[in-house]
Amino acid sequence: SDSIAGGVNLVLTAYGTGTCGNASDALFIGVGPTRIANAGVDMNVCADGGFFQLAGNITGVSGGTWTTNGTGTFLPNADALNASYVPSAPDLVFQQLSFVLSTTGNMGCPAHSDTLAVNMHQPSTVNAGMDITTCDASADVQLAGTWTGATGVQWTTNGSGIFLPNNTTANATYQPSTGDSQLQQVNLFLTTTGDLFCAAAVDTVKLSFVNPLNAAFTFGNACAGSNTAFTDASTTTGSPIIGWNWDFGNGSTAAGQQAGNAFAGAGQYPVTLTVFAQNGCSATTSQVVEVMFAPTAGFSFTGDAFTGESIVFEDNSFGGNGWHYNFGDGQGSLSQDPTHTYTQGGQYIIVQTVSNAAGCTASDSMLIAITENKIVPPKLPDAFSPNGDGVNDIFYVRGGPFKTMELKVFNGWGEMVFETSDPEFGWDGTHNGKPEINGVYVYTVVATSVEGQDFDHSGKVTLIR
Fold first, then answer.
1. What is the pLDDT of residue 66?
2. 265 exposed, middle or buried (CB, 10 Å; 0-12, 13-18, 19+)?
3. Is 294 helix (H, G, I), strand (E, B) or coil?
4. How are beta strands 376-379 and 383-384 bridged, if at all?
5. Pairing mode of beta strands 454-463, 383-384
6. Would you give the distance in Å from CA 116 to the centre of its chain?
7. Phi/psi zone of residue 181: left (φ > 0), alpha (ψ -120 to 50 degrees), beta?
8. Distance of CA 38 to the CA centre of its chain
9. Is 463:439 a contact under the CB 8 Å cutoff?
10. How far is CA 164 from the centre of its chain?
11. b vs e for 362-394, b when ≥16 Cβ sit within 10 Å of the residue's Cβ?
């Protein structure tokens, strides 16, 4: 009370002087203000980076201020008795921080202080493990959870399976339910327990009931009696493929990403490939392979073996549906019965290659000697224009030289409108001195060369004025 009043008056009185009155004297002793700082009750907080609230109290003076051995921030400032403290990164590694609340406005007297201890508790950690893909939804799944800081863990799920031996064992076994397999994927949550000052930590592992494998393969030409190459074309969306088993449907098997098999005879063979993933999954695919015998090649030709003469090749092969001819002069054809004309004399090797639907091939070859032809067969244009301009006015027979030659021209009604046996004489587009109408006319040429080679040729010519 004396402190609150600011001081105290002491009065000294003398008495016993007989008839005289008592004598008194007063002395004032000034007392400084009351100074009481109360920093509050010691605290336990989670060192997760979040702020915590201070609640200081000052008695007798106008205020107080906070100080700390940490390096965080007071909000709104250190003079607020109920300030919030935001820990710094270094603060989070301390086990305990000290906060001192000191009085201000002490009027020359020493400040009073009080200390608050804040115990920093590290947050728990939990790891539910890697996501799991299983091929068999009826098989138990082994879990491998770990944690730090907490007193225990607990498994939960959005599925309907059960944890064995219980859901508080970090490395429990999960037994999926029928409903889990229908969902194709469930989440398993591992949560820490016994966290007194920090929020529980949670981690999730995804359990997928999907086979990551898609088995597939390709193969080359399936020809009886020769090796057919098979190549794996399988894909995986997760675990890598580590094994391959082949069954060729003819009693033969093989292993490996690539395999070969020789089929003794033609027919349909069910070829099966089974692939195995590192996680224990497997997948199987089958294809019916049509094995065919190789075709037989063969051909012949007709025509004069002279340059400039058309030579007709006749296919004599069987069992094929595709043909390729190499005429030996840099030219070729995909026709079954092609026609070819050599421009230079010489010996040429003609190769016929025949293929079937399975890609099986066979070849035959023939040597042909081409003689330089100095006789030019009859050559006639497809059109002429007898309009008097001096260009292409006469329809002549070119070629030769000929011993004999006969040219006849017929109109559309089969009437002969021109005839000559003179190679130097051609049709001028008239008949009986009158111009013929524009149109298409048919001609025939029968000639014999000076070397005795006969020619019989017919065609069409268009008259255009």
1. 98
2. exposed
3. coil
4. unpaired
5. parallel
6. 60
7. alpha
8. 67
9. yes
10. 39
11. beeeeebebeebebebbebeeebebeeeeeeee
Q: Find how far residue 90's CA is from the centre of its chain.
A: 45
Residues in the chain: 465
Structural contact between residues 295 and 225, judged by C-beta atoms closer than 8 angstroms:
no
Sequence-ordered list of residues with C-beta below 8 angstroms from that of 137, at least 6 positions apart, any chain: 176, 178, 180, 181, 209
The per-residue pLDDT for range 418-447, each reduced to its tens digit, is: 999 998 899 999 999 999 999 999 999 999
The position carrying tokens 């058309």 is 310
Q: What is d(CA 440, CA 282) in angstroms, rounded to the nearest whole number?
A: 74
**Strand (E) or helix (H) holding 120:** strand 113-121
- Tokens at 79, concatenated: 């003079």
Distance between CA atoms of 259 and 347, rounded to whole angstroms? 44
How many Cα atoms sit within 13 Å of 23 on the Cβ side?
Answer: 6
Residue labelled with tokens 């592992």? 205
In angstroms, the CA 99 to CA 119 distance is 11
Predicted TM-score (pTM) above 0.70: no
Beta strand segments in 248-331, E: 253-255, 258-262, 267-277, 282-291, 299-302, 310-315, 322-326
- Where do we find the tokens 């770990």? 146
Query: Do residues 267 and 199 make contact, with C-beta atoms less than 8 angstroms apart?
Result: no
Tens digits of residue pLDDT in 269-311 = 999 999 999 877 889 999 999 999 999 999 999 988 888 889 9
What is the percent of the chain where pLDDT is above 90?
A: 75
Please, which residues bridge with residue 398 across strands?
A: 379
